């Protein structure tokens, strides 16, 4: 294992063993497996020495046994993109891809991320945070914004546990379901508009893609299951000023959280042209249907090149 804190050159990395950490124990395990398999295949096609490691409690022993020099993080959700895995790798002096401990922890918790966005003047929908389902239900008739609202677990990704409640009648069931997941609950004002996503790579705004889902909500199935009729338009067909504004907001969010490598932000553009940041993913998916690879491809960066570019930025962050 290496204790080198800095990024490597391509020649140096070709002489090192890259551990693609995938799977994990969160609700996003299946997506993580798909991301990891895609990344490891891409890196092998470029001649890197790659070993796949399914993340579990024996991870430190596996890293030592496999003599991993650099880690490519493909673990989504809790324990993977929330700072836990990053902290472990820091303590083992193993350089890794993506954001560091603090940026990962902030980005994974929707409530803390909201606080960062507000502090930096980044427009985001109004919200209330609740410590549990009981407090969220007690506030159903006193929310500072009208229905419809969006109910989210604070520490899940891939739209897991997210519900749009058009009326008070569906609120209780949504809160009860979202409360199954650990962490606080976020109840957010619903903002009607076009859903677009912006990608950032190494502090450069790559561009904006529009997702047109066949169903009303771009949920887990629409994101990851084939045949759902989802369309992806790159570049997003927005007026130039709105396109630039979305790029600016995504880059501002990336920098406000302190992200490294790649990030992907979800944004709503209203009919009036206002831009609202929903959230920023500090460890975006890298599957065949994932958005950061689609954005990068639109900019002429194919999938293996994107994986390699992220690998070249691997380092210790603290």
From TrEMBL:
<keyword id="KW-0479">Metal-binding</keyword>
<dbReference type="Pfam" id="PF01820">
    <property type="entry name" value="Dala_Dala_lig_N"/>
</dbReference>
<dbReference type="InterPro" id="IPR016185">
    <property type="entry name" value="PreATP-grasp_dom_sf"/>
</dbReference>
<dbReference type="Pfam" id="PF07478">
    <property type="entry name" value="Dala_Dala_lig_C"/>
</dbReference>
<protein>
    <recommendedName>
        <fullName>D-alanine--D-alanine ligase</fullName>
        <ecNumber>6.3.2.4</ecNumber>
    </recommendedName>
</protein>
<feature type="binding site">
    <location>
        <position position="279"/>
    </location>
    <ligand>
        <name>Mg(2+) 2</name>
    </ligand>
</feature>
<dbReference type="GO" id="GO:0046872">
    <property type="term" value="F:metal ion binding"/>
</dbReference>
<keyword id="KW-0460">Magnesium</keyword>
<comment type="pathway">
    <text>Cell wall biogenesis; peptidoglycan biosynthesis.</text>
</comment>
<dbReference type="GO" id="GO:0005737">
    <property type="term" value="C:cytoplasm"/>
</dbReference>
<keyword id="KW-0464">Manganese</keyword>
<feature type="active site">
    <location>
        <position position="290"/>
    </location>
</feature>
<feature type="binding site">
    <location>
        <position position="281"/>
    </location>
    <ligand>
        <name>Mg(2+) 2</name>
    </ligand>
</feature>
<keyword id="KW-0067">ATP-binding</keyword>
<dbReference type="GO" id="GO:0009252">
    <property type="term" value="P:peptidoglycan biosynthetic process"/>
</dbReference>
<dbReference type="InterPro" id="IPR005905">
    <property type="entry name" value="D_ala_D_ala"/>
</dbReference>
<dbReference type="InterPro" id="IPR011095">
    <property type="entry name" value="Dala_Dala_lig_C"/>
</dbReference>
<feature type="binding site">
    <location>
        <position position="279"/>
    </location>
    <ligand>
        <name>Mg(2+) 1</name>
    </ligand>
</feature>
<dbReference type="GO" id="GO:0008716">
    <property type="term" value="F:D-alanine-D-alanine ligase activity"/>
</dbReference>
<keyword id="KW-0961">Cell wall biogenesis/degradation</keyword>
<dbReference type="InterPro" id="IPR013815">
    <property type="entry name" value="ATP_grasp_subdomain_1"/>
</dbReference>
<keyword id="KW-0963">Cytoplasm</keyword>
<keyword id="KW-0133">Cell shape</keyword>
<dbReference type="InterPro" id="IPR011127">
    <property type="entry name" value="Dala_Dala_lig_N"/>
</dbReference>
<dbReference type="InterPro" id="IPR011761">
    <property type="entry name" value="ATP-grasp"/>
</dbReference>
<feature type="domain" description="ATP-grasp">
    <location>
        <begin position="114"/>
        <end position="312"/>
    </location>
</feature>
<dbReference type="GO" id="GO:0071555">
    <property type="term" value="P:cell wall organization"/>
</dbReference>
<dbReference type="GO" id="GO:0008360">
    <property type="term" value="P:regulation of cell shape"/>
</dbReference>
<keyword id="KW-0573">Peptidoglycan synthesis</keyword>
<comment type="similarity">
    <text>Belongs to the D-alanine--D-alanine ligase family.</text>
</comment>
<comment type="function">
    <text>Cell wall formation.</text>
</comment>
<keyword id="KW-0436">Ligase</keyword>
<dbReference type="GO" id="GO:0005524">
    <property type="term" value="F:ATP binding"/>
</dbReference>
<feature type="binding site">
    <location>
        <position position="266"/>
    </location>
    <ligand>
        <name>Mg(2+) 1</name>
    </ligand>
</feature>
<feature type="active site">
    <location>
        <position position="28"/>
    </location>
</feature>
<keyword id="KW-0547">Nucleotide-binding</keyword>
<dbReference type="InterPro" id="IPR000291">
    <property type="entry name" value="D-Ala_lig_Van_CS"/>
</dbReference>
<feature type="active site">
    <location>
        <position position="158"/>
    </location>
</feature>
């Amino acid at each position: 294992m290496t204790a080198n804190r800095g990024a490597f050159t391509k020649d140096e990395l070709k002489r090192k063993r890259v551990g693609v950490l995938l799977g994990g124990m969160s609700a996003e395990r299946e997506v993580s497996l798909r991301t990891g398999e895609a990344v490891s295949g891409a890196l092998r096609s470029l001649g890197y020495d790659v070993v796949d490691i399914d993340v579990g409690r024996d991870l430190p022993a596996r890293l030592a046994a496999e003599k991993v020099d650099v880690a490519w993080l493909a673990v989504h959700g809790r324990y993977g993109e929330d700072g836990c895995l990053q902290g472990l790798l820091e303590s083992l002096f193993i350089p890794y891809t993506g954001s560091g401990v603090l940026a990962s922890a902030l980005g994974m918790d929707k409530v803390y991320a909201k606080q960062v966005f507000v502090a930096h003047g980044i427009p985001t929908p109004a919200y209330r945070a609740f410590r549990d389902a009981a407090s969220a239900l007690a506030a159903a008739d006193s929310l500072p914004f009208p229905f419809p609202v969006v109910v989210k677990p604070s520490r899940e990704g891939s739209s897991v546990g997210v519900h749009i409640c058009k009326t008070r009648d569906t609120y209780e069931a949504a809160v009860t379901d979202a409360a199954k997941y650990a962490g606080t609950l976020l109840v957010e004002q619903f903002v009607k508009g076009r859903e677009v996503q912006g990608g950032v790579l190494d502090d450069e705004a790559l561009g904006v893609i529009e997702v047109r889902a066949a169903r009303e909500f771009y949920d887990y199935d629409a994101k990851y299951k084939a045949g759902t009729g989802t369309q992806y338009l790159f570049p997003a067909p927005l007026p130039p000023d709105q396109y630039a504004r979305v790029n600016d907001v995504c880059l501002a969010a990336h920098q406000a959280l302190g992200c490294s490598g790649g990030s992907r932000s979800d944004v709503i553009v209203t009919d009036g042209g206002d831009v609202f940041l929903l959230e920023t993913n500090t460890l975006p998916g890298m599957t065949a249907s994932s958005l950061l690879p689609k954005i990068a491809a639109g900019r002429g960066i194919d999938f293996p090149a994107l994986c390699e570019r992220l690998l070249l930025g691997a380092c210790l962050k603290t």
